[in-house]
Amino acid sequence: MIRARKTKKITIYDLAELTGVSASAVSAILNGNWKKRRISAKLAEKVTQVAQEQGYAVNRQASLLRKEKSRVIGMIVPKYDNRYFGSIVEKFEEMARERGLFPIITCTRRNPELEIDAVRTMLSWQVEWVIATGATRPDEISELCSQAGVHTLNLDLPGTLAPSVISDNYGGAKLLTERILLNAEKRLGQKISLTFVGGRRNDHNTRERLRGFRDAHQEAGLVVSAKNIYIDGYSPKHVQETLAEFTPPEDGLYGLFVNSTISLEGVVQWLSARGQTGERQPPMGCFDWDPFVPLLGHDIDMIRQDVPAMLEAAFSIIDSGDTKIQCIEIPPTLSCGTPL
User: Fold this and answer.
1) Pairing relation of β-strands 300-304 and 333-335?
2) Alpha helices in 99-168 (DSSP H)
3) Strands (E), the chain
4) Tens of pLDDT along 53-93?
5) What 3-state DSSP class applies to 54?
6) From the CA atom positions of the chain, what is the Rg in Å?
């Protein structure tokens, strides 16, 4: 055991002298950033032990060095005020605690800078895994975690450097489009092409849903033109601003495929301003699910993503430690507004 005379408060410089390493290395170890500095676990343990013997106030991050595993698991999520992401967070917490893991969750608002900052903070707490949910740049997160020796998993949106668990966006969108087309034909007495509303053009899920939307039209013998696509963000504000440019067909008959309940809020407000509520509302469906949607509009079909199955698949990967690159697609289910 190494002892120093306690005539003053111990500093990292004293610890550096006692352990024979640089002050910056001592600081990195005591702040939990030793892996990023490529400092060995053996040296980190030695410095931490000496710091404790000298009565140095070792922080939470450094104290985790005494354990083989931290039992901490992190998740970033883009939104809280959305039924889908809210249910992901709730189920994730439940399943993590069942395994004796402590979940850390933070909302990053689809902001790449916030995502990276959040992950860096999680790494300083020595998380065992980072679950990147709906991340805008999942591969950057995977690279950052890889440098720290931490595993990552992509949820909702896929990446190319870590395993991913997502919904079958193509299959779900095709199923929903087919349903809206049938509903439109029944209500309007003729086949019509639908209008796609909401999403981001560089977003994998939007691209796959748009592909399913187009293929369903093609199989029905219908054409989807550029004027039928309104993609400029998910938010209600963006949707209303985009739909301000919408011009209905000459016969006034149209239907809507809405790419999120977030976007649906903007669509319902837009329809209300046009006086198209109740039975005057056009045939429509939403790629998302919320039990309160029937209160927002008349006869809205929905796609419900299978959150329990998605997280079962995610924790199967975590439990097994199998980090091979793969993309697991979980089929969603159709929730119909009214029977045809």
Assistant:
1) antiparallel
2) 112-124, 138-147
3) 72-77, 102-107, 129-133, 151-155, 164-167, 194-197, 229-230, 255-258, 284-286, 300-304, 327-330, 333-335
4) 887 755 445 455 544 578 999 999 999 989 999 999 999 99
5) coil
6) 26
* Nearest C-alpha neighbor of 258 from the set 285, 239, 277, 291: 285
pTM equals 0.81
CATH class of 169-304: alpha beta
* Rounded alpha-carbon distances, angstroms, from residue 303 to 5, 69, 260, 298, 339: 69, 39, 9, 16, 15
C-alpha–C-alpha distance, residues 306 and 311, integer Å: 9
Common-topology check for domains 72-162 and 169-304: yes
Please work out, in degrees rounded to the nearest 5, the angle formed at the alpha carbon of residue 200 by the alpha carbons of 195 and 204: 105
Residue 308 pLDDT greater than 70, yes or no: yes
> In one letter, which amino acid is 165?
V
User: Taking the domain 72-162, which CATH number applies?
Assistant: 3.40.50.2300
Alpha carbon distance 322, 221 (integer Å): 44
